[in-house]
Amino acid sequence: MDIPGTLIIAGVLIISFILIFAIGVSETTPTFARNDFDNICNKYLSLMIAKGGLDSTDKANLENELMSIGYKNVTITAPVSAEWGSEITLKVEAYYDYDTINPDYTRENKSVKSTYENSTRYFGLEN
Amino acid sequence: MKIFYLLLSAVLILAIIGGFVMLNNIIELYTLTNRIEGKIITSGWSAFPEVDLDILAKRHIITDEEKRDIYLIKNDAESKVREYIKKNLKLDDSYYPKDDSFIKLKAYPVIIDDITIYNPDELPTIAPNGVNINNTSIYISLQFPIYINFVGDCYKKIEVIVDTKTFYSQFQ
Fold first, then answer.
1. Which terminus of chain A is less hemmed in, N or C, by CB atoms within 10 Å?
2. pLDDT for the residue numbered B42
């Protein structure tokens, strides 16, 4: 039986598109997560500039926010307080686990480490 | 005829792969730009402790309420911005990315096009990117090197405006 050419194209394309789409989505997931990770950390660095540091509640809130977007094993390094004009650094390390699909259709769990490290100076001002 | 259809399929698959690679590039570029933008804003904030204390001491004689914002010592403020851009992007003294920098292209320097500090006596004004400036602000424009598939090595420009009002509005 002769298979029509258009059917070959349709079949190959559908299978390829599904595979490429699945790989594409799974590989871009950590990139989107990294974007959210940076935005959350930037927010807490802004808080540090206003307060001079992060207390235990702030650190717990930061950890919870990162865990809510899928990060695990969060390590936060930040001063509790600082002198006006002195350097303050927020360092956050965390791991993001995600599933990816290999070209042979097998699934694989990967873990990627994200590190945020930004320094600035404390300048709490009365507005 | 069947070979023709198979070749056509192969071409279309390559086109789909190419499309996804480009889409992935765009997403990565957006994420990297967002990451660098955050670091530039952070570096800009490092300049705000360079307050001109002489003018701060005379604020009571500045009758125009709009001009009673903080004044920055421009040279000191600019050097702090440069210092923290280097620190946060992990650049050497010539602005080339160090080995541990997340900027992958190490062969090209980060180019700082402009750092302009606007004190209250120069306001209101319009920044080079067309944004109205009404408060003490720092305008920073720089370019960072990036590799893009199908394009090659190139530069991406970032412009940010940092001011205390914007910063404090996050907490009000």
1. N
2. 92
Output the pLDDT for position B86.
97
**Hey, which residues does B145 pair with through a beta bridge?**
B155
Coil, strand or helix: which one is B143? strand
Work out the pLDDT band at B172, boundaries 50, 70, 90. Answer: very low
- Please state the ipTM of this predicted complex: 0.81
- Residues A86, A88, A89: CA angle, nearest 5 degrees: 155
Burial B90-111 (b: 16+ CB within 10 A, else e): ebeeebbbeeebebebeebbbe
pTM value is 0.84
Instruction: Report which residue type is found at A4.
Output: P
Residue B119 has pLDDT above 50, yes or no: yes
Beta-carbon contacts of residue A126 (< 8 Å; ≥ 6 apart): none
Q: Who contacts B127 (Cβ-Cβ below 8 Å, separation ≥6)?
A: B116, B118, B133, B137, B139, B159, B161
> Beta strand pairing status for A87-101 and A107-121?
antiparallel
Q: Which residue has the tokens 């720092």?
A: B138
- How many residues can be counted in chain A? 127
- Mark out chain A residues that contact chain B at CB-CB < 8 A: 3, 5-6, 8-9, 12-13, 16-17, 20-21, 23-24, 27-28, 31-32, 34-35, 38-39, 42-43, 45-47, 49-50, 84-85, 87, 117-123, 125, 127
Q: Does B136 touch chain A (CB under 8 A)?
A: no
Is pLDDT above 50 for B70? yes
User: Is pLDDT of A55 > 90?
Assistant: yes
Tokens 């809510």, located at residue = A68
Containing H/E element for B121?
A: none
What gap in Å lies between CA B139 and CA B104, rounded to an integer? 26
Distance between CA atoms of residues B4 and A70, nearest Å: 47
